[in-house]
Amino acid sequence: MIRPLCAILFCVPLVCASLQSLNDTCIYTLDDSNSASSNNTRTLWDILLSCGWTLFACTWTAVHPNIPGMNEGKVAITSRRLFIMIMALIAPELMITWATRQFFSASAAAKNFNDSYFDTHTQSTKAYMHRWTVTHGFFAWMGGFMLYVNDEPRGTLTTDELQRFIDEGSVDMPVISEAEVEDRSKGDGLSKGIAILQLVWFVVQLFARYVRNLPITLLEIDTLAVVALTCVSYSMWWKKPKDVGCPCIVHWKGTANQPIRLTYDENLARLRGGHFRSLIYPFLGLMGIEVLTSSRAASSRRVPSLGGYGKYRAKIVLFIGCLSGIVFGGIHCLGWNYLFQTRTQYMLWRAASLGTACAPVLLFLDLGCGMLLGRSVSNYRYFIITFATISSLVYIAARVTLVVLILLSFRSLPFGIYDTVVWTQFIPHL
């Protein structure tokens, strides 16, 4: 099922090579009259709609949010989803980091559960049990199991807490099959297929323009960069349930002592130091630092928006996240010699492309050195937060600059930008 995504990624380097044609392209003032003189043309709206639908397919279909909190309305759920979509457009490497951490955590949760319970029980016990899959692991980490004490919601359980309470006999083992988990999911093969077809069609068009020596806009370069990274996130989330509305209830046994503190309760207590800390910690958690949440997520008894993972393979996740950031900035560097209207725009594009590619490197050096030296990250918390904040500001400034330059580029586009590919030319004939 992941083969279509791999096919898209395989075509990305070929499409990137086509962008070198921009180096020798002269820039002319737009002339709509000339564009309308031929049937094999496209309009500015065609370009915007093509990129817009592709970006929408990347974000709306590929993003798999966690389970919403208790008594949250549709406005809050939709707002949080829009926030994640915007993050996917602005910083798709952040989505790769999040998806990778969840994938590793889900795989580890499924393995630990099967090793601890399924493989060690008798055949009679296995009759009502279900072997956990990666889908089960995703469901658990995204807030799939809610602890109830005296018929009142207590909080979302992590996989470690669920396993510990089962071992202690405080809760019964939840019995849910993979089919039941998938039944809670709102995702389906049709929506995934339509999204993949849109991505494939976009990449094919760019590759065809390269074959016919037709220029490409900066917006299409940016869309290509987002598509390349979103495909990786999509593949990591392929088995994750999508848009699950409510968790599975796990009842606390009356004979056992009630839990004094859960994971997100502890995080809530530690985040009372300020509003800024509650905003920065979830992002730092994605890069391998301690997993924390905001007070809003804890009060609504849900997994944080960018949470739902454990401390598994933090070094690998950090490397993948930083590498994806370099790739994202590197694709924008393919417009290195694009002829802008002014030299200032020309230099700003180069600086912003390098800034987008180098900011993840700074963060990797910041966090990676501490890991390689075997020192506790918490000992350097102030330095890490300061350095990470600076890197984030550099990235935000660079990304905003790229977006502004992309918008300004439509004032003057390369000659032939409105010419479309004549597909009949690709048909072999005598």
Automatic annotation (TrEMBL):
Domain of life assignment: Eukaryota
Keyword terms, alphabetized: Membrane, Signal, Transmembrane, Transmembrane helix
Signal peptide: 1-17
Membrane-crossing residue ranges in chain numbering: 45-63, 83-104, 129-149, 217-237, 318-339, 351-374, 380-408
Coiled coil segments of this chain: none
Name of this protein: Uncharacterized protein
Origin species: Suillus luteus UH-Slu-Lm8-n1
